[in-house]
Amino acid sequence: MIEANRKILVVDDDFSVLDAYEEILIAANDDEADRLLELLTADLSVGKDESKSTVDSSKETFEMVKASSAEEAIEIFHQAHTAGEPFSTVFMDIRMPPGMDGVECSGQLLKIDPNVYIVIVSAYADYSLSDIKLHLGNNYVYLKKPFIPEELIQVAEFFSLQWKKSQQLKHRIVELENELDSSKKLLNKSG
Q: Which of the four CATH numbers 2.60.40.1930, 3.30.1370.60, 3.40.50.2300, 1.10.132.80 does domain 7-163 have?
């Protein structure tokens, strides 16, 4: 049976943001976590306590790998894909100077594995949604920083399950193709 893929790559050049993702998606419980949640929810109507309770209530955690540049992300992503341990989801910042930006990097990741789900997360409007669509097609979701922890959890959960469904469907198609080939061979033998 194919399991949900809870392996996530997070790409951001800001180490405090990477730590915040880790707190939200891995759901640790300590004072540093409170500080990070406070930082993320600073300008939002959602309170730290409300966000913390949602994070704490998440039953399963994710396997999360961090990268601080697009180039590092491509290397990590390629190695995981080659090893047969693909990521289901990538959370990608757009601005990551001095190298490749997040939209270009996402395009490279989709070339390696078109089954990955991309979440573009940015505080800046460097690209319009139509510009991103030109680069990535419809293979992305856009979230604006500062993000809401509940949104990250929901998107990660959804894409983890979608990845599983997609793999199950592909597996079933192969099974049906094999059954069809076997049936054709039987018909040819009897005919």
A: 3.40.50.2300
**Angstrom distances, CA of residue 172 to CA of 2, 117, 164, 176:** 11, 21, 12, 6
Tell me, what's the pLDDT at 57? 43
Q: Mind giving me the DSSP string for 72-133?
A: HHHHHHHHHHHTT---SEEEEES--TTS--HHHHHHHHHHH-TT-EEEEEESS-SS-HHHHH
Distance CA(33)–CA(73), nearest Å, equals 25
Per-10-residue mean pLDDT for the chain, 191 residues long?
A: 84 92 72 56 56 49 92 97 95 89 94 95 85 88 88 90 86 89 82 64
d(CA 37, CA 31): 10
Cβ partners under 8 Å of residue 157, min gap 6 = none
Name the token pair of 183.
Answer: 């049936």
Length of the chain: 191
DSSP three-state, residue 166: helix
CA distance 191 to 180: 16
